[in-house]
Amino acid sequence: MATVEIVQADITRLSVDAVVNAANSALAGGGGVDGAIHRAAGPVLDQECRAIRQTRYRSGLPTGAAVETSAGNLPARWVIHTVGPVWDNSGTQDGLLASCYTNCITVADEIGAHSIAFPTISAGAFGYPLDRATRVAVETCTRARTDIVERIVLVAFNAKAERAYRRAVDAVAG
């Protein structure tokens, strides 16, 4: 079982085997963490994402799925891209959000990544409530079954997100 850590940091600067990109389905780079990862990784990431869109995912990466690329100029070796659900207030997307984490950990196992860093998937532009997004992340990652991954880092983008993660840890442990 992997250890789960919470840090407030810039995910593009972390020294881990794989960083997760909260991507759009076109894998085209965008705002938030997606744009930051694409900018920091450099043009190789865009090239690999275009190749994936032209071959494996011609209609776009489905919500909850995960796919890897190299990491370009990032300290990590790989970027694992996943598309989180857009919040619609129905309360039905938790399973899709959990599948983002589960599928990324599965991909990390497949590529031999011992450490993986996750942003707070869907909690930015996709509108997922922060407390709910962090709870799903903590629950899913603490229960993850993995053969290779030893360290899972949940990266808070600010102090508010870090507090939400810590509350989620307390709730899951309690």
Automatic annotation (TrEMBL):
Q: Does the keyword Hydrolase apply?
A: yes
This entry's Gene Ontology molecular function terms read: hydrolase activity
Q: What is its EC number?
A: 3.5.1.-
Q: Which domain of life is it from?
A: Bacteria
Record-linked PROSITE patterns: MACRO
Where does the signal sequence lie?
A: none
Q: Where is the Macro domain?
A: 1-173
* Xref: InterPro entries: Macro_dom, Macro_dom-like
- Name of the top EC class for this enzyme: hydrolase
Can you tell me where the transmembrane regions are?
Answer: none
Assigned keywords, A-Z: Hydrolase
Q: Does the keyword Transcription apply?
A: no
What is this protein's name?
O-acetyl-ADP-ribose deacetylase
